[in-house]
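Reagents: none. Just compute today. Transcriptional regulator, LysR family.
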Amino acid sequence: MENWDDIRVFLAVARAESLSAAAPGLRMDPATLGRRIARLEERLGAALFVKSPQGYALTGRGERLQVHAARAEAALALAGEAGPQERGLAGQIRIGAPDAAANFILPQVCAAIQGQNPDLEVQILALPRVVNLSKREADMAITVSPPETGRLTVQKITDYRLSLAQRRDAPAPQSLAALGDRPLVGYIPDMIFDRELDYLGDLGARGVPLASNSVSVQLQMLRHAGIGIVHDFALPFAPELVRVLTRELSLTRAFWLVRHAADRRSARLSRFAAALMAAMRAEVARLEAECLTVGSAERDG
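Predicted 3D structure written out:
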C-alpha cells in the first residue's frame, strides 16, 4: 500500500467529497490537497476521483481503494498504536446505537474488536430513540445527527447512503411520481425520533401503509411487499431486494459518535472509540461496495 499519509489524505477527500470540506480536518489548504491527490493518482496510474464543480466523486478504482484503505485504517486504530508493553482493552463498554447501526454494522465490528481484546466485554444497546448519556445509559452513543446541547464530545464517524428498494421480482416504478400505487414501507411517522430519519419529504409521500419504528422490521416488510428507503449497507443482508430509481433519489446521512466530555481523559475509552470509528468506516465502505457490485440488477424504470 502507498504511504499511509497519502492514504489518510485520500480517505478524507473521499469521505468529504470535496477538497475544501476535507481541508480543515487535515489542516491543509485545498490546493495542497489537490496536488497530493494528483500525485497519488499519478503513482497509481489511475484516476481515483471524477472532479467537477460539485466536488470529488470516487471512480470505480477509487471505491475499491477506499475499501482497502478503510480496512487498513481500522487495523491501525484497533492496534491503538500501542507499544509492545501496553495491554489490550479490558472491562465493559456499552454502546448505544440506532437500529440500523446496531443490526447491520456493530455486530461484526464489535466482534472484531473484542476478538483482539479477549478481556473486553462489549454491549450494544439498540433503542428506537436517542440514548441518554447523561443518565449513563451507555458509555458512548452513535447518533444520526450531532446533539446540540449537553457536555458532550461529538465526532463524525462516516457518511452513509440510502436508496429506494423493492423486491427483485416486482415491476420497477417508472418515476417517483408513480409510487402512489405502491404500499410505502417506512417509519411510523409519530415515532421518528430524529429529523434525519424523516424521509417522507424526499419522497413527497403523505402516508406509510406499512410502517415500523425498526429498520430491521421495515426490511422484513420489504421482503414481502412494497417499496421503501433502505440503507445501502443493509442491502447485502437482503439479496431479495434491489435498488430502484437511483438517478432520481439517493440520500446521504451520517453517523456520529457522542461521548461524555469527562471521558476524554479515559485512555481506555478513547482507544476503543478510535477503533470503533475506524472499523465502522471500513465496514460501511465494504458493505456499500458490495451493494454496488450486486447493483448490476438495479433498475431505473
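Residues 81-85 have pLDDT under 50 and may be disordered.
Action item: order primers for follow-up constructs.
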